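Cross-posted from the bioinformatics board.
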Amino acid sequence: SYVLTQPPSVSVAPGQTARITCGGNNIGSKSVHWYQQKPGQAPVLVVYDDSDRPSGIPERFSGSNSGNTATLTISRVEAGDEADYYCQVWDSSSDHYVFGTGTKVTVL
Amino acid sequence: EVQLVESGGGLIQPGGSLRLSCAASGFTVSSNYMSWVRQAPGKGLEWVSVIYSGGSTYYADSVKGRFTISRDNSKNTLYLQMNSLRAEDTAVYYCARGGGQQLFDYWGQGTLVTVSS
C-alpha cells in the first residue's frame, strides 16, 4: 500500500516561513492535497492539486510537488496557523485514499 | 450552502454493530463521491470507505468485510454500517464530500464511536 511520510512536528516563529514535507514514492506523479485541522475541529482543505488554493484560503498557503516530495509552505506565519496538517493522495492502483502521518505546526 | 451532519455514534461493546448517518444539504449525495474518514483519539486521519456516484464502493483493508457504505438518494443521506466492531475502531468518524482530483472539499463535524466493554 502507498505510504505518505510527514515530519511529526515543525516549529516556526511568527512572521517566518514554515515548510511541511510529504514524502512518497514518485509522489510527483500524483495530485497532492493538504488539510489543516485545528483541535476539536474537522479538517479543512487548504491546498489542492499540488498548488491551488480553495476560495477563502490566504495566499500565504502554497504548495509544490516534485519527485518523491511534496511541500506545503506557509509564509508569514501567524498564531492562527497553529494546527495539524495532513497531505493526501489517491492511490489509483488500489482505488484507496491515503493520508500522510500528519505534522503539528507550533508557532513559537 | 453545503452541510454535512453525522449522527449515530456512541458507546458499543466489542463485536457489536452500529450504523452511522451523514445527512447532506446544499448538494446531491448521489451526484458526488462520498467518503468516511476516521481519527482515533490523538492519532491521524485514516480513510475508511468511498462510494462513487455510479455506486462502486471501496474499503480500507482494516474494515473490509466488516463495514458497508451506502446512501439513500431520497433522503440525501450517506451511511456506514459497522459490524464486528473492535476496540481499534474507536475514533471520530467524519463524512466528507469528494471533489476534483480525488480530494475532500467539505467535511462534517464528526461523530464519536467508542468500542469498549
